[in-house]
């Protein structure tokens, strides 16, 4: 209750100075009592407001979470650490009034405030650690997918090497053709060279892509190790918290990849600049890996299509060359038969001419000449008794012998030319037959080796 002064009597007996001194003392005590009471009430109310502000966590900043993940995966960062001693312990300092003594539960209040600050900090750290581990799961899944693409690249490269071996064996097989007429360069040789250049170019492109894939896998592995190290470092303050879905990788890394970057990292906060750097580098590596996988799919499909086109073109050229060889071989067979028939006719004609020439020359021994063939036979002698009665028999015999000799020589030359042509046709026929066998063997070899490769259907069609 407020202190009130007692009214004095209207009649005074004591001296005025004595009375004034006493009244002055009483009023001064009353003023001090009122001043002390008002100061105590104001300080208590201000102390309560400061205490409520100190023990209530304040959200002074927020964080945008990367990516369209679930709401429970979002990270929220609060400035929960006290800014100074006065905000956490309101009874420790004074501003414009005298602070009363701390209450008896001051120690418990300080401990409770510290526990609250530590609990909220740990929860924020657990959210950051969960996001880091989910990102590590996404990186691990991307490593698995990229490893699968690398396996496909290696299989296609093995197929290309086998195709280059087939090309080399085809070129070597065609070198055993007859050296006289069938070793000239043709369209099939040109296509084999084009196939070799095409396969070499494809091999170099795929090997370069394979090197890029291996380098990207190493980058993803390094990002995964950095993420796990960062998550382990963040988890050092999470030993006393229960394991919940938000703080562990219970989703198996199936969350959506982050689309943005966590903002406002602090060196001493739950989300440090190191965490931000690791998340950004891992997200960039995942995006690069996805682009590389799309490029690998396109390159594999293109390589398979080009490889099949080159192989089919060479096979069709060889088959066409075999068909041309068979056609020429048939024509050679027909012409060689006609040439042999002409040789036989010319031989019979030559025999007749030789026989006629021998008959025109007569026997070699004069004793074998018949009487009717002699130029001095009795009828001729009787005919020559008159002047100017010469017979042209001897001149006709000489002319006939010379004509027969010329026919014999020309027939022998024609016969020799026919025989040479026939031999050339036969040799050419044998060369064509050997060339056909060699090209047929090369085509069979190419088809057999391709069948032995047994390329999977999803690789041949490029559908994977």
From TrEMBL:
<dbReference type="InterPro" id="IPR038949">
    <property type="entry name" value="TEKTL1"/>
</dbReference>
<feature type="coiled-coil region">
    <location>
        <begin position="185"/>
        <end position="216"/>
    </location>
</feature>
<protein>
    <submittedName>
        <fullName>Tektin like 1</fullName>
    </submittedName>
</protein>
<dbReference type="GO" id="GO:0005737">
    <property type="term" value="C:cytoplasm"/>
</dbReference>
<dbReference type="InterPro" id="IPR048256">
    <property type="entry name" value="Tektin-like"/>
</dbReference>
<dbReference type="GO" id="GO:0005929">
    <property type="term" value="C:cilium"/>
</dbReference>
<keyword id="KW-0175">Coiled coil</keyword>
<dbReference type="Pfam" id="PF03148">
    <property type="entry name" value="Tektin"/>
</dbReference>
<keyword id="KW-0963">Cytoplasm</keyword>
